[in-house]
Amino acid sequence: MRASRTLRLLLVLPLLLLAACTAGPDDEGDDEPHRWPELAPGQRWQPPPGTGWQWQLTGTLDTSVKAPVYDVDGFNTTKEQVAVLKKAGRKTICYLSTGAWEDFRPDAEAFPQDLLGKGNGWEGERWLDIRRVAELEPLMAKRFDMCREKGFDAVEPDNMDGYQNTSGFPLTAADQLRYNRLIAKLAHDRGMAVGLKNDLDQIPQLVGDFDFAVNEQCAQYDECDRLAPFIEAGKAVFHAEYELSTSRFCATSRAAKLSSIQKRYDLDAWRRTC
């Protein structure tokens, strides 16, 4: 995430109010869910470039949005809700924070205090010392087990670029590569796909370890070309913009084969598609 929730909402509240008056949770003409090919035993789902998606992390889950892929909160989404989405032909992605601690999660007390670093700009969240993989691996494994048991097809691990932030720890690029590859392995060992969240600098090294990418605001910051290795590898880039209207990024997104949507910063059900 690029900025604190409070700062973002203060900056964009007028835009959000306007958007609320001009669009609903699903735009006309959006794609119907794909007819997904059957997976061979042991084969993981891998979304191709241009696959449509919905990203909702807050509010009551709206399962009526006509998107072939849903990226939703792993803790708050129930097994029954995942089953409803799967019955409707949707693929489901389990959102988890793997690089930062969140004080509002049910397993928060399982994290030793000395694993927790500085705040990451979101209320109740602190960076994790990702160098200490022996302690973090079992904690993350339990979360990935939860995703698998609920029936998710994939995982979106968030806060995967702590080494580029003021984390409170002397994290290096090598530390981040090691940890991100561990996260990918935890998902793959459970038969789930996994996406690389942001972390643009390490895409060349990690594109082979991840099945898709999730990106925020590459159009606003003129960074979308850096995601091309995923497209070239036949892997979707699920992309969201907050401050740019669709008229400002959709033409470029379509040309680049990105799966682009406009969202509000609170990531409720509302969206606009390209």
UniProtKB/TrEMBL annotation:
Keywords: Signal
Short name of any one Pfam family annotated for the protein: Glyco_hydro_114
InterPro entries documented for this protein: Aldolase_TIM, GH, GH114_TIM-barrel
Occurrences of domain Glycoside-hydrolase family GH114 TIM-barrel (ranges): 53-270
Domain of life: Bacteria
Gene3D superfamilies hit by this protein: Aldolase class I (3.20.20.70)
Signal peptide stretch: 1-25
Protein name (record): Endo alpha-1,4 polygalactosaminidase
Species of origin: Streptomyces virginiae (Streptomyces cinnamonensis)
